[in-house]
Design brief:
six-stranded mixed β-sheet, 2 domains, Rossmann fold, about 30% helix, nine-stranded mixed β-sheet, about 20% strand, 19 strands, about 475 residues, alpha/beta
Length: about 475
């Protein structure tokens, strides 16, 4: 068995990953100790512990302990390699670590046990389809180039069977083209919410068990006009596809209802000085749509609170007031209305997930978009593997067929996939009350055409810095 570092010197240093092959026809050789990062000892293979041996493996024989079998490992004994990409660098790093939490929670439910609290630490003992799971994690920084480089490491070097990720919109668009070059693999979206991951020219092996940006904003424009009474709204968002989609869906609905958009401001990710952005908010604006994430959202909202425009109504994007950011914002988050795929619910599925999240990661807040998205995607993958008995033959055809028709009740409600392999699921309009995203409206089973005829929705065109125009 060999051990080698994952990644390169330009990325966050990660622990070594142990390559373990279970050989069921020999008596196990006891290998003591779990390796810490950089250590030279090797963790015991999963097949040593009787509790982790799949029932389909051949019972140990009476061969002497020193004997070595020349028989190749059975398919059931061969690990399924799952690679994960999440943002663990830059202004979205906190959100990216939450994505890793979601993956690990799904693996814990599959019999796994954490081997450390860091994002690159292993989960040992998880199985799916009667086969052990081996986890590989790569970091991105939110950029398409970094996400693509991480995917190449996982697919081409580590030879993973399935890739889960990435997190951000433009990253997902870059990986869609890469997925089409590797049709023998299965790709599961992490938290990619750009509509064009699936809406146009979908890759046949990319599955999104979640909603896109416009679905998350469904109903928000009408709510702003009809319930909040806003008429002239300015917007600010990071300059990439996911904010385009969120703002675009809001603009389409708000303007159809009779509202006006008085300014659209796009800023780079990682902006720290928002003085100019606040100054440019037109005096006519009676509300502000803020589609910023991570530290960008915290920095902007704190700057707004200390400006002459403090107190103006704020409508948030799906992660502008994610639970972890609410904790950072404190009272500044109170009253912010947003469209979201996640809210505080009282369903058994939500409560069970929230309990597991808090018990496993004590520093976590309420379930948020990224942990739930990565959990749902990974859990769906494991369910698909169980259904096909871990069969990845013939270009993973059986797994892909099973995923395409999979339906189950997630922590936020029922989910199924449309013809483009994208999620049909509940979304919510929420309001921050006492530090929690409380539901004020549930949009049940929203599809990626927002309930419109598909051809009518596609005529609106891809959302961008300027599309859709504000028309009444």
């Amino acid at each position: 068995m060999t051990r080698r570092p994952v990644g390169s010197s330009t990325r966050v240093q990660k622990p070594m990953i142990v390559r373990v092959w279970a050989i069921a026809v020999v008596v196990a050789v006891a290998i003591a100790g779990c390796a810490a990062p950089g250590a030279t000892t090797v963790a015991p293979p999963p097949a040593v512990a009787a509790a982790t041996v799949p029932s389909t493996t051949v019972p140990p024989t009476t061969m002497p302990a020193t004997a070595v079998s020349t028989t190749a490992p059975s398919a059931a004994a061969t690990p399924i390699k799952i690679g994960v990409i999440s943002i663990l660098e830059g202004p979205f790093a906190g959100l990216g670590e939450q994505g890793i939490w979601g993956v690990k929670l799904a693996l814990i439910e599959a019999g796994g046990k954490l081997e450390g609290s860091g994002p690159f630490d292993q989960v040992a003992g998880a199985t799916a389809g009667g086969r052990p799971i081996e986890l590989f994690v790569e970091s991105s920084d939110g950029s398409p180039d970094k996400a693509l480089a991480a995917a190449k490491i996982l697919i081409e070097r580590d030879q993973v069977d399935v890739l889960v990720g990435p997190l951000s919109g433009d990253e997902g668009i870059a990986l869609k083209s890469y997925a089409e070059q590797h049709l023998d693999k299965t790709f599961i979206s992490g938290a990619v919410s750009s509509q064009d991951l699936t809406l146009r020219d979908a890759a046949p092996n990319y599955f999104r068990f979640g909603t896109d940006g416009p679905q998350m904003a469904d109903g928000l424009g009408k709510y702003a006009y009809q319930t909040m009474g806003l008429r002239n709204v300015a917007t600010i968002g990071e300059d990439y596809s996911f904010p385009y989609d969120q703002v675009g869906a809001f603009v389409y609905e708000f303007c159809q209802a009779g509202g006006n958009i008085v300014d659209r401001n796009w800023v780079p990710m990682g902006t720290t000085d928002y003085a100019a952005s606040i100054t440019r908010i037109p005096k006519a604006a009676d509300g502000l749509v803020v589609v910023l994430s991570g530290t960008d959202a915290v920095d902007f909202l704190k700057s707004l609170a200390n400006s002459p425009r403090a107190g103006m109504p704020v409508i948030g994007g799906a992660v502008t007031v994610d639970p972890s950011l609410i904790a950072s914002l404190g009272k500044l988050a109170e009253g912010i209305v947003s469209g979201s795929p996640v809210a505080v619910l009282s369903t058994p599925e939500y409560l069970a997930y929230a309990k597991l999240l808090k018990e496993t990661f004590p520093g976590s807040q309420d379930p948020g978009l990224n942990d739930v998205a990565y959990y749902t995607g990974t859990k769906s993958l494991l369910m698909g593997l169980d259904q096909v008995g871990g069969d990845l033959s013939n270009g993973q055809a059986k797994l892909k067929a099973a995923l395409a028709v999979l339906k189950w009740t997630t922590p936020t409600g029922p989910i199924s996939l449309d013809k483009n392999r994208s999620g049909i699921a509940n979304t919510f309009i929420t309001k921050v009350v006492n530090g929690q995203k409380q539901v004020i409206q549930t949009n049940e089973q929203v599809n990626e055409w927002l309930g419109m005829p598909e051809d009518q929705y596609l005529k609106v065109g891809p959302f961008s810095r300027t599309n859709p125009p504000c028309t009444h």
